[in-house]
User: Fold this.
Amino acid sequence: MGRRKVLSRAESQALTREEILDAAEQTFLAVGYRGASLNAIAAEAGRTIGAIYSNYDSKEELCLEVLERRSSVILAGLMAALVGADDDEARLTVLAAKWADLSSDSGLLILAAEYGITTFRQPEQRARTTAYIDRARESVSVLIEDHVPANLQPVAQNTLKESVDAILATGLGLAQLQTFGVISVEESSRTLVETFRLWLGRLEERVATP
Assistant:
């Protein structure tokens, strides 16, 4: 019978953190940000409340990491699917399908909205959230840059920033409309793809302009 591997301190801490994140995600999505408590998350993880405070300063910090981890998984799935697409139209089809999945995840969208509203007047946490949004903007920027020439002129670089903000704002608005049942998944996906296509065309025009 093999000997059980003894985890190092770093490995043990990483495992504890992962178990807390798993429990937090499950709890937040089940009862919402306001309904979740650190005591409930600790119980779900089979850990003490002290274990949570050893890894996170607050519920706000824990929730933000849940949102970041979930979005990273979604983005990684999107990037992997795009790699297998042969041309721009195929990539847009992938984008539409992935957006349909994301925008239909009402639990995640509502959690993000709850978190944002609750922490808006907390300067320190708001700064962390802003940094998280900036990372999301960078990811969208990388996605768009894959469709346009590598050496963008300065004017095109400015348009790239405009396109990222426009696509993110459109996506957020569409997600809200879809969550409340104002538009369908198909309408939401179609509008986002058309917005993406519109800004790609504008970028190509600006690159072509001497």
In short: The chain has two domains: 8-56, 66-208.
